[in-house]
Amino acid sequence: MRNHVQPGRTVTIPAPAAVLSGGVVIAGNIIGVANGAAAIGDPVDVDVEGAFELPKVSALAIALGDLVYWDATAGLVTKTASTNKKLGYAVADSSNPSATANVRLVPVI
Question: What is the pTM assigned to this prediction?
Answer without folding.
Answer: 0.92
